Amino acid sequence: MANIAVLGYGTVGSGVYEVIKRNQAIVSRNAGEEVNIKRVLDLRDFPGDPVEEVLTHDFNDILNDEDISVVVEVMGGVEPAYTFVKGCLEAGKSVCTSNKALVAAKGPELIRIAREKDINFFFEASVGGGIPIIRALNLCLTADDIEEISGILNGTTNYMMTKMADEGWEFEEALKTAQDLGYAERNPEADIDGWDACRKIAILTSLYTGKNTDYEKVYTEGITKISAKDIKYAKELGLRIKLIAESQKTEEGLVAMVAPIMLKKSHPLYNVDDVLNAVYVRGNVLGPAMFFGSGAGKLPTASAVVSDVIAAVKNKSNVMVEWDDEDLELSSVGSVKRSFFVRVSGSEAEKLPGIRELFGEVSTVTAPGVTGEFGFVTGIMSEKEFNKGYDKLDGAITRIRVDNREEL
Amino acid sequence: MANIAVLGYGTVGSGVYEVIKRNQAIVSRNAGEEVNIKRVLDLRDFPGDPVEEVLTHDFNDILNDEDISVVVEVMGGVEPAYTFVKGCLEAGKSVCTSNKALVAAKGPELIRIAREKDINFFFEASVGGGIPIIRALNLCLTADDIEEISGILNGTTNYMMTKMADEGWEFEEALKTAQDLGYAERNPEADIDGWDACRKIAILTSLYTGKNTDYEKVYTEGITKISAKDIKYAKELGLRIKLIAESQKTEEGLVAMVAPIMLKKSHPLYNVDDVLNAVYVRGNVLGPAMFFGSGAGKLPTASAVVSDVIAAVKNKSNVMVEWDDEDLELSSVGSVKRSFFVRVSGSEAEKLPGIRELFGEVSTVTAPGVTGEFGFVTGIMSEKEFNKGYDKLDGAITRIRVDNREEL
Predict the structure, then answer these.
(1) Which of A202, B138, B245, B405 could cross-link with B197 by S-S, CB 3.0 to 4.6 Å?
(2) Is the pLDDT reported for residue A408 higher than 70?
(3) CATH code of B181's domain
(4) Which of B96, B140, B264 to mutate to test the interface with A (most CBs of A within 10 A)?
């Protein structure tokens, strides 16, 4: 029998408890022995909840219990999670976490301690919720030189972008509904400013390169500037705007970024709507692959955490994860080549000659009910090259990147 | 250094050779040591090909070479592959194969020998080519009670169905083009009669249930009866016909089957076109997930084989795979509930009252240019219930299953 402890009895923690109880036979069969929740740590009390039997308010009840071999950390935030997780690993207990803030900030150190102690630090649920993208990178796509990862990694903003596209809502309306439905926090900055997606793409980039990606160096643009007018233009162009977290090898080096991008219908991420997440991966021999599913939510996230618990129980020694302390050098987003959509005030007749001088041939577009301005889409050019023109453009309102590559 | 051998230098075998040479540094880093191809077995000679240096015509050169720890089998067919693979496993060499015929026929025995010898028998490339669906089931979705797996698992027939839908081609034209492009064999029965997809869904079903699924007991219907007229009706209904291999838990037990099914636009497999493969999985806590990518082709398949080689080099002892000798009991397809599309000769005015007596309320449809007949779609009912009515239906031309579930 393997005894485990759960740090935090919030949404994910209670989900982990529920999944282990509900799927007890399957979990134990796959782990090779019975999995028993011996302790749950939370500062709160839960009168009448069966968790009471194993509830503790004192972390030392877990740290000092030699029977507990695997600890689940689902508290969120860097502290006190970091202190607790480090303590558990140093005490020889494997740790499974869903905490992307912790993994993005302290991943390489915690992985190193686990390796030294010959135990495991797993974090499948930290990216993509129930989608097994971390094991896919660590254990499956190992024969490939990964050329690109692009993902819809934040369910809240994807819900908002879907509603703005399908219902014509403005940003504020979409945000309020997402908050009312419990998708977005009352302080929604981590989602709408792109920082959640940024931490996740940093984690994936670290894993496929084997070097540490500092998430603070990842170029990050949120969705706060996207308006109902932008969506109208996108519709006219047959495109959909999604908050994309991407990491790709360019001629000048590796670029990681988060930004709203217009996708064409044939793009694998075009149809990924509502709170769903998806990750598109391109390998040099595999070609394109996509992983798609519930990126958040109590039970899907708990499903991923429990699959980590099963792996931690099954693997009595360290399963090597390549993620060194050494920082990965990121290239500037200026080197990425694509098209750009631009909105500009004034009339085509008046502006187009100047636009052609700046960007070469462009295609123009107008949106129903939007007056006093028009839009255009450039050919494929580097972002650096585009910015040179955009800085000189008189009457520019906004610009959105466009992924219109032929080959995906 | 890990020495490996490759049995068969055909399409996949030469792909494995190419991937290991091309991605040497990545393959060796992920394996934890250098991976060296010491021997390649083929009856043919390849004058001028670098493989000549390691080519042998004698299997004993591999079997008796104690330096060779991992053997790749990519010959296809049950014999002599079975004899060779069994010999290698008994000699203590791990085996990685892309051979679905071998795995479907002899899987549990070969898995048992590998377990007894504390080595590994891996077969990621046997289903879904480059899509890592086997590791996903074995290592990732381990916390879930899997309720359903539905897949597009045969690239040739998916190419044909896509062309029939997009170009209006008849079956024969689609088949001939698939043959000209090298997708379909000159004897295409394994593809078009559904037997290839049948073996693959049997393998996936064995893995998620842990019991042996006899592929000969899987209800299998190919695409040979699908005509351009059927496609016209599907278009009118906003549906797409795909050859679906599925395995699901019904109230009466587990049903596995292969058949053309009409999918609605919101179905995750609706947009999977051309030679692509995809697998949709629904777990009781994970909810829906989908895996999508190149299901065939030299390099994607080789990518999956080489990821197995890396796992075999890395794991010096047996990685448990649950797939017992014990046969899984399959329930009749009669218990599956869904809608059915039916074409019937005659006019609506004349036939509809009788149809309603047999099937209850139905919705009717006509297709442009198709005269002397019409179509209708039933409500959701069990296949058994549907067949009772269909057997009595006067002037029935054909029927195709429809997946129009609300929740997926």
Answers:
(1) B245
(2) no
(3) 3.30.360.10
(4) B140
B125 and B21, same domain (yes or no): yes
* d(C-alpha A103, C-alpha A305), whole Å: 14
Residues A397 and A258 in one domain: no
**Cα–Cα distance, A321 to A139 (Å, whole number):** 9
- pLDDT single digits (tens) B290-339: 999 988 889 999 999 999 999 999 998 999 888 998 999 999 999 999 99
pLDDT at residue B407 greater than cutoff 80: no
Q: What is the DSSP letter of B54?
A: G
**Average of pLDDT values for A21-26?**
97
Does a structural domain hold residue B162? yes
Say yes or no: A113 and A142 in one domain. Answer: no
Residue recorded with tokens 């309020």: A176
Token couple for B22: 């091309």
CA dist B145 and A84 (Å) reads: 31
Q: Two tokens at A79?
A: 């502290």
Do B141 and B277 lie in one domain? The reply is: yes
**Domain end position, chosen among A242, A263, A294:** A294
Inspect the interface and report whether the beta carbons of B26 and A142 lie closer than 8 Å. yes
Structural domains counted in chain A: 3
CA A242 to each of CA A180, A291, A401, B331: distance values in angstroms, whole numbers, following the listed order: 21, 17, 10, 43
In this structure, what token pair is assigned to residue A76?
């969120």
Residue B286, chain A, CB below 8 Å: the answer is yes
Q: Who among A22, A32, A132 is closest to B136 (CB)?
A: A132
Same domain, B118 and B139: no
DSSP B280: E
B373-378 and B362-365 beta bridge pairing: antiparallel
A403 touches chain B (CB under 8 A): no
CB contact under 8 A, A291 and B291: yes
Where in the sequence is the domain holding A371, given as residue range(s)? 336-403
Place of tokens 């991407």: A246
**Is B211 labeled as catalytic in the residue annotation?**
no
Q: Which tokens sit at B190?
A: 């394994």
Q: Where are the alpha helices (DSSP H) in B181-242?
A: 189-192, 195-209, 228-236
Query: What is the rounded distance in angstroms from the CA atom of residue B262 to the CA atom of residue B244?
Result: 9
Q: Is residue B191 part of a domain?
A: yes
Q: A262 and A177, same structural domain?
A: yes
Tell me, yes or no, whether B54 and B188 share the same domain.
no
